[in-house]
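Session log. Operator J.P. requested a structure for one protein chain; no other inputs attached. Running the standard single-chain path with token output.
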Amino acid sequence: MSGPDYSFAIKDFFDKDLERRLNLPTEESSGLPNVAYTSEAFFRFEQGTVFRKNWVFAAFAHQIPQPGDMLPVDIAGQPVVIVRDEDENVRAFHNVCRHRGAKLIDEPQQGRKSLVCPNHSWSYSLQGKLIARPHFFGGEKHDINHQACHRSDLVEIRGSVWHDWIFINIDGHAAKFNEHIAFIETRIQGYDFSALGFAEKLEFDIDANWKLTIENFIEPYHVFSCHPWLNSFVGMEQRTPPDFHEHILYCGYQFEKTDPARGEGLPYFPGLSKDRQKRGDWYVLFPNFAFEIFPDQVDVFIASPESAKRTKETIALYFIGDGTHAPEFEQARRHVIKNWYDLNQEDIGIIERMQAGRASDGFDGGVLSPYWDPVQQQFARLIVRAMR
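Structure written below.
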């Protein structure tokens, strides 16, 4: 499907010099201007470009475990339905009837055989094919000629499942998903993700723009100031600066000791090499999907934009094997989950302060650290490029 042309609008938000500044040495560069965090018009523009043109997280596969399970989501301001079909394939469709445009599904469904429009009862298979149009040619004159109905099939959205995570690309023009994640796949070789089990989800409402949550996630510079426990676990002198590879931002550290707050006593990934038994790494897959990987867990972060100044953040925690649900690991799990909750509460306070600061004429994108902030500069470049 072709979509609206947003290219004309970028000049309304960015001065002509921004792209040049973003490509200067980091200490001479800056981040994005305030309008990128405060303007609802910018937010709508961003939804139609950044989130429409890229692979974007849509849902967890464990939310639709059985054939006929369906989940409505909103991505890039558009209603989408995620479906598991009869062959257990995960599919994504525009969540709208082809007749008069009624939204098909407005709450999760389990074990359904078809999608039925509430307006005129047009029905669709789990593969998005139109099944029937009741009374289409008049009373009791139903249309069940599938060959003639093909123009009324649901519009499918390009999708891919990576472990427990469903991604979609609405405009259909992004690179192949395996190419999109190739760099991360190379770096996480040796971690057996098939051993992971979903344990718990934490959700937070943040009064700030989604970009601030991602920028904060990838940036370790604030640890010594905002996270007392985390700084005692791994000090600033042990931390390396974040780095990036095109649309992937990443960072990591080695730690000398274990701690219950970081999973001490929980099972490790099977066959994990010794150097990774005391290592943590975290990644951002542009635009808004991120995860951390430790010897005994993977923790996923999703920043879901709700408005220019409002974000829903989800943290999904996965443990290995029996560590996921076994009673003997309950206390260890609870300790880890509480630690993630506490750390995120510390982050939310500073993220919301940064949002408040975006109302100030005294801030123009920031003065960046040449050591810690090249990744912030790259994130800003990725936003601008996507909006082009």
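Operator note: The chain has two domains: 57-169, 188-387.
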